From TrEMBL:
Protein name: glycerol kinase
Involved pathway(s): Polyol metabolism; glycerol degradation via glycerol kinase pathway; sn-glycerol 3-phosphate from glycerol: step 1/1
Pfam family, one: FGGY_C
Ion transport among keywords: no
Key words of the record: ATP-binding, Cytoplasm, Glycerol metabolism, Kinase, Membrane, Mitochondrion, Mitochondrion outer membrane, Nucleotide-binding, Transferase
EC number(s) stated in the UniProt entry for this protein: 2.7.1.30
Signal peptide (UniProt feature, chain positions): none
Organism (species): Synaphobranchus kaupii
InterPro entries, per database record: ATPase_NBD, Carb_kinase_FGGY, Carb_kinase_FGGY_CS, FGGY_C, FGGY_N, GK1-3_metazoan-type, Glycerol_kin
Subcellular location: Cytoplasm; Mitochondrion outer membrane
GO CC terms of this entry: mitochondrial outer membrane
Family membership: Belongs to the FGGY kinase family.
Length: 568
């Protein structure tokens, strides 16, 4: 007893703590913050496996996602104990997640009925084309007045429609009224609050606004939209604000993280909205860009939804309390950013580790006229062109893997420039600097390139985990928790690093013009009516130009890699 008292007296006294689950496309993290200072005290990260069962398909295992959350919680709690920090000081938990990724599970067994279909997935392209063909004037913006979104493979409704059309287990569960639909936040909150034993089936307004089933004006599921996609409304989660107590944690008491049992889950934001909150962009006109698997630029537009004329999305930024008004944002979404680096690592073996890309690119300091358009999932904002595919062009015999690495980083910056240009046109007030966050911002070469290509300063906070911070802020500020004040005068000052443009604007414009030319070459690669390869499956080589191009590109890349290997 005396030993236990002595141990407890040695514990570091920090005041209230708030935790966040950050479930992203490529990894899961659990992070613990000091609610008074916003200091990150401890965290743990686990990489998530993606599977690609067919061309254009991207899936993840819902059970692996859940298990990764448990593992991150357990390891973080162990680290806190080692740091002598009392786990019982954690007063709330927030959830932030990859958006649009779609799951259906059985509420009686608690089992997923299919893998999670990831936001990047392209299997619904024919469904999208069919829906657009049905609209007056073949208008992909037919539902935009209600949803703020174009009809696209990106959003959840078409993924859910595919599951209901193609997976027998889902069809049977829907008919038997056992099916539950949700994005990743819904799946995690349901499981963590009890699952089949009383789990809470809910989502927040930011995640709901990415489904194409949610009316961003009424702030609820829209019966007409559900009828349009033929989705039964009873399978949808209840829509809640981004900051309120949804339910209490239930974890096995045998685990170290069992100490989290009974703690309220009281914050929920889609990852890009969470980053907006974490960057403290609470004023109309403030913006941030997050560099992760994709790249997402959000600009707060205040209490009114602003419709874009330049290919951007209108989305719900946050609703920080049940009785608070919603705030809206304009969003530019880029599908492939960090995923291009992962592709260079996993598919081509150009780097052993994603962090090696900076060192490799820095050895040449230029792409030497090589341009890489990573349109693996078509092109998102501002084009919304699902028929585009990835290309590498401007290759010469001089091009090597270092130039390709540099071109991959430049591609992230050029895509950001495109959505920033669109945002400046929509708002009429150009941004004078860009606030950034996300895993890729640790790459200083990338940040400098971004400043050079935008011709404005890039500002990176010293604490890069702004997505998780946003979820923690929402959870800590919730009514009934109230350990984190969101009043402007109470928000912690953020230290940051600034990258100033170092090249002249003429050089920047020349490179950007070449990029735009490369993008045009990437358009219209995929045929709209795929040709079967004989066993009922469609093939990437159904598009002859694309087939020849990919083969040619692969041979050249393999040759370049071989030559580079010999030289080393």
């Amino acid at each position: 007893m005396n030993e236990r008292m002595a141990a407890s007296s040695d514990r570091v006294m920090l005041g209230p703590l708030v935790a966040a689950i950050d479930q992203g496309t490529s990894s899961t993290r659990f992070l613990v913050f000091n609610a008074k200072t916003a200091e990150l005290l401890s965290h743990h990260q686990v990489e998530i496996q993606q599977s690609f069962p067919k061309e254009g398909w991207v899936e993840e295992d819902p059970k692996e996602i859940l298990q990764s959350v448990y593992e991150c919680m357990e390891r973080t709690c162990e680290k806190l104990t080692q740091l002598n920090i009392d786990i019982s000081n954690i007063k709330a938990i927030g959830v932030t997640n990859q958006r649009e990724t779609t799951l259906v599970w059985d509420k009686e067994t608690g089992e997923p009925l299919y893998n999670a279909i990831v936001w990047l997935d392209l299997r619904t392209q024919s469904t999208v084309e069919r829906l657009i063909n049905k609209t007056p004037g073949r208008n992909k913006n037919h539902l935009k007045h209600k949803t703020g979104l174009p009809i696209s493979t990106y959003f959840s409704a078409v993924k859910l429609r595919w599951l209901m059309d193609n997976v027998v287990e889902v069809q049977e569960a829907v008919l038997a009224r056992r099916a539950m639909f949700g994005t990743v936040d819904s799946w995690l909150i349901w499981c963590l609050t009890g699952g089949k034993s009383g789990g809470v089936h809910c989502t927040d307004v930011t995640n709901a606004s990415r489904t194409m089933l949610f009316n961003i004006h009424t702030m609820d599921w829209d019966p007409e939209l559900c009828k349009y996609f033929d989705i039964p409304m009873e399978i949808l989660p209840k829509v809640r604000s981004s900051s309120e107590i949804y339910g209490l944690m239930k974890i096995y008491s045998s685990l170290k993280s069992g100490a989290l049992t009974g703690i309220p889950i009281s914050g929920c934001l889609g990852d890009q909205s969470a980053a907006l909150v974490g960057q403290m962009c609470f004023q109309d006109g403030q913006a941030k860009n997050t560099y992760g698997t994709g790249c997402f630029l959000l600009r707060n537009t205040g209490l009114k939804p602003v419709m874009s004329d330049h290919g951007l999305l209108t989305t719900v930024a946050y609703k920080l309390g049940r009785d608070q008004p919603p705030c809206y944002a304009l969003e530019g979404s880029v599908a492939i950013a960090g995923a291009a680096v992962r592709w260079l690592r996993d598919n081509l073996g150009i780097v052993q580790c994603s962090t090696d890309i900076e060192k490799l690119a820095a050895t040449v300091g230029t792409s030497y006229g090589c341009y890489f358009v990573p349109a693996f999932s078509g092109l998102y904002a501002p084009y919304w062109e699902p028929s585009a595919r990835g290309i590498i062009c401007g290759l010469t015999q001089f091009t090597n893997r270092s130039h390709l690495a540099f071109a991959a980083l430049e591609a992230v910056c050029f895509q950001t420039r495109e959505i920033l240009d669109a945002m400046n046109q929509d708002s009429g007030i150009p941004l004078t600097q860009l606030q950034v966050d996300g895993g890729m911002t640790s790459n200083k070469l990338l940040m400098q390139l971004q400043a050079d290509i935008l011709c404005i300063p890039v500002v990176k906070p010293s604490m890069p985990e702004t997505t998780a911070l946003g979820a923690a802020m929402a959870a800590g500020a919730a009514e009934g928790v109230s350990v984190w004040s969101l009043k402007p005068e109470d928000l912690s000052a953020v230290t940051s690093e600034k990258f100033e443009p170092q090249i002249n604007p003429e050089e920047s414009e020349y490179r950007y013009a070449r990029w735009k030319k490369a993008v045009q070459k990437a358009m219209n690669w995929e045929t709209t009516e795929p040709v079967s390869n004989g066993n009922g499956e469609t093939s990437i080589f159904s598009s002859a130009p694309l087939g020849f191009y990919i083969l040619g590109s692969m041979f050249m890349l393999i040759g370049a890699k071989y030559i580079a290997g010999c030289q080393n």
